[in-house]
Amino acid sequence: MMTTLVGYVFKGAIRDRLFITLAILLVLSIALSFFFASAAFIEKSQYAVVFTSSGVRIAGSLLLAVFVSFFVRKSFDNKDVELLLTRPISRKQFYMSYVLAFIAIAIILACGQFLAIWATNPSAQLSKGYLIWLVGIGLENIFVVSAAMFFAMVLKNAVSSMMACFGLYVLSRLIGEIIGIALSGVAAGGVNSTLSVVIQAISIVIPRLDLIAQGEWLVYQEGPLALSQGDFVLIFLQIPAIALLLIIAGMIDLVRKQF
Amino acid sequence: MGYKHVKKRELQYLYLLLFVCIFALTGFWYGLRQIRNQWFVVPDPPSKFWSSVMAIGDEQLAYRVTGLTLQNLGDSGGQVTPLKDYDFGQLKKWFFLADDLDPRASYVPVLAAYYFSAVQDASLLPPLIDYLEVVGARPGGERWRWLGQAAYLSRFRINDYERSVVLANKLAAMDDPKMPSWTDQLPAFMLAAKGDREEAIAFTLAILKEGAETLPPQEVFVMSEFLCKRLLTTEERKQYTFCDAFKE
Fold first, then answer.
1. Which residues of A touch B (CB under 8 A)?
2. How many C-beta atoms lie closer than 10 Å to residue A117's C-beta?
3. How much is the ipTM here?
4. Is B54 on the interface with A (CB under 8 A)?
5. pLDDT by residue (tens digit) across B171-220?
6. What is the model's pTM?
7. How many pairs of residues across A and B have Cβ atoms under 8 Å apart?
């Protein structure tokens, strides 16, 4: 039954033209990147790679947030969920089917994004930097679908869910800078100290997306030099851990939901 | 009146209103089309934090956007600004912002060394030389070229001989076997230009002595000619037998 549901989600993705939209977005990203890079004095290929990687990252996250939010809310609004739950499948299995399908789509998207990067510089070898970037973007996409799934469960409106997911994504990209301010002691005294503590508490459940899939890994074709191996492993484990937290939270919401 | 007649009159009023709006917009267009963004001075650069925020945490993207901003500063929207109108003190801050974002890339140093340095008013160059001195002194790659360019600008553009000697010595002290031999010889030329003849002679003799077996013959020839024909007096030349080759 779970496999059938996964196939159902994939069919939904094809029906909603997700992969075609992705392909169009990637081609547009590459074209725009080359256009902007052509204005650069030197290092045109580096410019193209950086602009493409930034563009496909944002486009991929937005696309996943929109698709997951609208697909899940549509399933609830059209009573598809209630119909499917009459079949011999538990709510947990139902939720996991959706999550596994979305994760598979996220990984396919990551491969597409990677191909777009490679297309900007086909002569580049598959170096350590490129491969670590691919893993990073895959984890980022998995985080986005987990978050979108959670918000789609909790919020009644697809647009609200999509905006909440994208807001969390942007916060995750910026949390490194914000924590830096909180820990530097610059914001000292009164309300600022309290806010510093609050932001540090919030950051427990916010992944450090600023530390993965960095543009410099593609430009210099090497992995993160500024991080120790231990830190590197921590960062790449934190994201699946937060994704798992969101999956469990969404599952709890579905199990407790009364139709 | 029938409903159809009322509807027709309503539509006529709406069409009239539409036409008035289009006419008004044409008037606005006519009045606004010549107005452009005014270019005043180089603006304050954002901090590294805000640059990173604007690029949603991606410092490499922030660097590339900063580079393109610097390249096109004052020259967008159909405007062209002469380099002499730029505030080079502010530009220096932008250069160091880019350096904070990515100390390894060459884009902004190239802009500073070969684009902004072309300013005709040489008195504007010191802040640019300050920046090239810092980025050029870092080991690795071919960053030494920025230091060489800084030495060139000090000597030939702003005629600051003191500074050109300091920069040339810094360049010569960089221990990189891939650097060409002129980087080792540069302090001699700068000392000579400054008027420190004795020091220039001592430096050149040291190069010839240390490089007797390692320097290519053409380099030995150039340094010997420089010493014999430009630094030594006629009397002093007699002390060095190799100067006989350069007798006129």
1. 36, 39-43, 46-47, 50-51, 54, 57-58, 170, 173-174, 176-177, 180-181, 209-210, 214-216, 219-220
2. 26
3. 0.81
4. no
5. 999 988 888 888 888 998 999 898 888 889 999 988 888 887 788 888 88
6. 0.82
7. 69
